[in-house]
Amino acid sequence: MRKLSFLLALLVSVFVNSQTLKPYVLGATSKSNLTELKGQLQKSLTDAGFTVVGQYQPASDANRWLMVVSHPSLDKAVKTVGGLTGFAATLRVAITKENGVNNISYTNPLYWGNAYFQKEFSKVAANYNSVDAAFKKAMAGAGQVVNTPFGSKKGETAKDLQEYHYMFGMPYFDETVKLGSFSSSQAAIAHIDNALSSGKPGVKLVYKHSIPGTNLTLYGIALNGSEGEKSFMPIIDLASPKHTAFLPYELLVKDGEAHMLHGRFRIALSFPDLTMGTFTKIMSTPGAIEELLGQLTK
User: Fold this and answer.
1) pLDDT tens-place string over residues 220-253
2) What is the DSSP letter of 101?
């Protein structure tokens, strides 16, 4: 009996790990006008257990709107493992008008959870299943349900996501860019808050979320200006449905340090099917993002 149980568990593990995941889910569609839909979507997300921590118009594009959400299960997952998993404390929900219809999409929890928790994901899988179910509930109240993953033709296995990098020589998840060091996390937060309120060029706060029971605080920053979102999104966001939920870019405060995910990791993870030819067109973008966010820690 033990041998049979072991074999069944092994088969389930092999099956799960062989399934491919895609970065986004087209949750629903709607023909409501944007103003009405924003209110309807926010209520639906709140009723499903999410908190909308921030929202904005990405890339100054009137056809796009973005909401960032937190969830108690995400907070619990981050608290369980800590460290750089603070980048996983929020997920993103987008409205994108395409061909006269509003597509409601969101970041696939299982895709991003595996990428950010890596080998520790099994510890928080139940939390992510809860968030996945909450998204499905929210979409049922937001419009015509579609529930179709997208963002990659083949997708990525959980194993590949847990050790993801685009290709040889490209950065991994934990090879972050350290933007600054401070005497404490409180000092880092005070400095960043002051920099944002003073109005640094090309950056604007979308949200700030502190994970309860930790010293982790995650910021979402809109990248404005000539080298910001409206510069690189038209180059990389070519497919349909649109990858609006790629934005905004994050900055994480942990242990008195400010970190951002390397652009060559974060962009590749968000657009895994981009060709090297397309990447060469945005060679300066990772550095431009670092320069924009770096203003907040200097």
Assistant:
1) 999 998 899 999 999 999 999 999 999 999 999 9
2) E
Nearest to 6 by CA among 285, 154, 288, 14: 14
Q: Is 1 exposed, middle or buried (0-12, 13-18, 19+ CB in 10 A)?
A: exposed
Q: How far is Cα 263 from Cα 18, in angstroms, rounded to an integer?
A: 28
- Percent of the chain residues topping a pLDDT of 70: 94
The predicted model scores a pTM of 0.93
Which CATH number does 21-151+168-294 carry?
3.30.310.70
Sequence-separated contacts (24+) of 165-173 with Cβ below 8 Å: 165/265, 165/268, 166/264, 166/265, 166/268, 166/272, 167/276, 170/264, 170/265, 170/268, 171/262, 171/264, 171/265, 172/265, 173/84, 173/115, 173/116, 173/118, 173/261, 173/265
Cα–Cα nearest to 190, from 212, 214, 208, 213: 208
Pairwise CA distance, residues 69 & 92, whole Å = 6
> Residue 210 burial (CB < 10 Å; 0-12/13-18/19+)?
middle
Cis peptide before 241 (omega within 30 of 0): yes
Q: Which of 257, 260, 264, 269 is nearest to 282 (CA)?
A: 264
Asked whether the bond before 248 is cis by omega within 30 degrees of 0, the reply is yes
